[in-house]
Write the structure tokens for this entry.
Amino acid sequence: MGFMRLSIFSLIAAAIVCVAANAGEPTTAAGMQLAWFQSRTIFHSGLRGTHTIALTFDDGPNAYTGAVLDALKANNVKATFFIVGKMAKAHPEMLARIAAEGHLLGNHSATHPELTSKFDDDPNLLIQQLREVNNEIAPLMKQSDVLFFRAPYGYWRSAHAAILNADPILRNYTGPVYWDIGGDMILHDGYVMSSADWSCWKHKLSAHVCAKGYLREIRRNDGGVVLMHCIHKESGDLVAEVVPPLLQEGYKFIRLDQDPEYKQYETPTTTPAVAAAAPLQSAPIVFAQALK
Ligand SMILES: [Zn+2]
């Protein structure tokens, strides 16, 4: 009986997912989704298990972003920066420096709102959120650079994709892209098993301790897209702690437009476009002064 109910539920759930995946999206005859904005967040980076890392820095730039750029330069590593429009407006010289030093600029919305149903009701609000940032970053990017979007808080609705794909500029974006590493602070037995930088700083952990969580999660996964932020006074120190040991261990660092997995979202393809979301891990956080 229990099995039966589960099966029927699964069938219904699968049907709902199919409908959602195709709503308002360009599709092939076989019903596969083409490129452009995806109706569901792109969770799968393909970098786990490849000894390859894509560092991504969200929410900047601000004055602290300079220290992040210094640390990246010192290690000859290129990364991706998801720009918030109002931050770029206040720090245009820092935005220009990010691009000039060979990093990839990405779009993270103009004011970092949670993209709720309010934005489906007024599509122009959504288009403005992305257009404003595009107008700031596109002139600094090379023709060959790929445009990526990451949704604030990772929050996304399928209706957004149809709205943005109807815009002649924004339809050129790949996204929304998520991350593999850096989303959660996980402590176990006094060890920092995973870190989220903003949570580290909120709980007054040092960059050295915070870095241990990033390093452990990266090593467990053997690579991935790493979420960090470039707007805190500790941000540069964190990069300086995390990158050198990984270089020593032979990890390769790439920008998001060098990730082969994302290529399928840039051009029409017959490959199924959306991978299942990995369940988010979390654990009760108990903070001790001396974390290992
Ligand atoms: Zn953000």
About this structure: The first strand starts at residue 52 and ends at 60. Strands lie at 52-60, 80-83, 104-107, 186-188, 191-194, 223-229, 252-253.
